[in-house]
Amino acid sequence: YDMTVGQTMQFYAKLKKVAVTDITPILERVGLAAQVQKPVKKLSGGMKQRLALAVSLLGNPPLLLFDEPTANLDTQSRQEFLQLVHTLNHDGKTILFSTHRPDEVLSLATRVLGLRDGQVILDGSPDALLQEIGLSQWLRMWIPPHHWQAAIALLSTSGFRTAPNGHSLFVQVGSQPKISALRLLETAQIPVEDFDVVDSSFVPEVQS
Q: What is the CATH number of domain 134-202?
């Protein structure tokens, strides 16, 4: 595949009957404007996903469909891609996506359909999903070190128990919706690089 980013966008713009003048603003939006002359085969996995997103934005569709969009991406690329999708949703795009990652559901979804053997077993909120699959009452979060003190202080004053451990922070969510701790940090602009839901046996001594 020898086409450049720019040539790829021109090819799909022609197929979709979209003006080529739309290409540059879209590439700027997804962070690929500086890669317009770069061959697609030399792009990183994260950049290829950004290019796929750029192609999907040609024609300004109201609905975007994603199937496991962050599969095989590293943590940074995954977070950057999810932020792009979050921004598109905030700007009015309807996003329909499939994923096996609860954290992506929590960070993006407002409505969740759970499937098993081709049948819908859940139709509800993100927190309803966590309750349905019986996940633990503890979240393990990876937060940049320079945000640790602010995160611990905010969570503690909001009623969450925390347990710092190495490069991660354990947060007991108890009876509160599990998504609330993540939304609390998001509102305070404290980034969560990744998180997982763990059994209490993995949690160190609670320190707050």
A: 3.30.70.100
